[in-house]
Write a structure and sequence with these properties.
Layout lengths: L5 E8 L4 H4 L13 H14 L6 E4 L3 H14 L3 E4 L18 H6 E2 L2 E2 L5 H18 L4 E6 L1 H12 L13 E5 L3 E7 L2 E2 L7
Helix pairs in contact: 2-3, 5-6
């Protein structure tokens, strides 16, 4: 019989960057936060401070790392480390592009030509969270990562397709050693299970 251990995760997308504001695909390109993004990270502290957190980790990309640093400072936490598996999904040659014919020409089922597939990114994200759930079993872990990676990972974890993740808002999930994943908050809103009639 598995141990009854519940590990809680806040998965927070980094604050805004100039590429976010311009609606450009960022992927693994290392684009820094802008001033709006820095303020979003500071504002996130108000929501996150309603909970107790044991540790904070982030993607090594600067927009996530700086968001994590600002949140950690606001909460009085130390950054445990940067986790390479939490880097945003690579969009390959599509990175830097805005919606339009050039971007559409690169689109293939499950992603973009020359980029990481939906499935590969979701598997990497789940791997990262499972590793953290094992390392920090029974603790409350704040994870600062990226929109697409969080969306694909949580969609895979709960078996349901989720919408885009907003910048610097609370996504609260629990990992149970036996029962798997449960998502309580998404984009700052409490999820209510929909019963289909």
């Amino acid at each position: 019989m598995g141990r009854m251990i519940l590990t809680t995760f806040a998965l927070v997308r980094h604050g805004q960057t100039d590429w976010n504001a311009e609606r450009r695909l960022q992927g693994a390109t290392d684009i820094p936060l802008n001033d709006v993004g820095r303020q979003q990270a500071r504002d996130a502290v108000n929501v996150l401070s309603a909970y107790e957190w044991d540790t904070i980790v982030s993607s090594p990309l600067s927009r996530a790392a700086e968001t994590a640093d600002l949140i950690a400072e606001g909460l009085g936490l130390n950054i445990a480390r940067r986790v390479p598996k939490l880097i945003e999904r690579s969009f390959g040659p599509a990175e830097g592009l805005q919606a339009g014919p050039e971007l559409e020409a690169l689109r293939i089922p499950g992603g973009f030509r020359g980029g990481e597939s939906d499935d590969a990114a979701a598997a990497r994200g789940i791997d990262a969270l499972n590793d953290l759930a094992e390392e920090f079993a029974g603790q409350r872990v704040l994870v600062v990562s990226h929109g697409t990676l969080i969306r694909l990972t949580l969609s895979r974890a709960i078996g349901r397709k989720l919408d885009s993740v907003h910048n610097a808002v609370l996504n609260l999930a629990h990992h149970h050693a036996v029962d798997g994943w449960q998502l309580d908050y998404y984009n700052g809103e409490r999820l209510v299970e929909v019963v289909e009639s």
